[in-house]
Design brief:
The chain contains 3 helices and 3 strands, in the order E-H-E-H-E-H. By secondary structure, it is an alpha/beta fold. Strands 1-2-3 form a 3-stranded parallel β-sheet.
Length: 78
């Protein structure tokens, strides 16, 4: 039985650093990637699409409405 490893990414910056590590371990582990945070916000470019285009399998998207609501609300007050 292969071991699994979970990567959590919330920004384009951390995914850029994780991507190389994921490529290294994906041959030895079942890789799962939990995509959340700024990746899922259109005001930050919907960078989850970059994660999808990277070709990794087992992507999981998680949206926390309360955080999104606070970010959108604070950006409208400017």
């Amino acid at each position: 039985m292969r071991k699994s490893i979970l990567f959590i990414t919330g920004t384009r910056a951390d995914f850029g650093k994780l991507k190389h590590l994921i490529r290294i371990v994906e041959n030895d582990f079942d890789v799962h990637i939990f995509v959340t945070g700024m990746h899922l916000l259109s005001i930050f470019g919907s960078t989850y699409l970059e994660v999808e285009k990277s070709g990794f399998k087992n992507l999981f998207l998680f949206v926390k409405e309360m955080i999104i609501g606070l970010i959108i609300k604070s950006s409208r007050n400017k």
